[in-house]
Amino acid sequence: KAKASPASSMLQMIAMINKELPDTVRKNMQPPALENRSGRFADSVRVTEVAQTPRGFPSVGYTYQRRPYEVFEMGSPGPWSSPERDPRKLIDKSIREIAARLAIGRFYTRRV
Question: What is the pTM of this model?
């Protein structure tokens, strides 16, 4: 049997996380975080890449519909940004929940 390449295992990880990600984000959208009204934000969240850090850990890159939800990120101008409503925190929490269920060890997340 041929061994699975690291690239194929990374693609499998992306597919497994993306399969569960919208539902997990939607479940985690509880006050004081962003609240689920239309489902548009949760459906826009997806993992785009998994790279390996120099120390060998996976680094998960994700994206979401930046307009209009970027206004809730800390550091964005305007009155809507707050640590509780930052979409990056919500997405990070959701990815970590899925990774725990899939028994993925230590990893990092980053918005791309």
Answer: 0.89
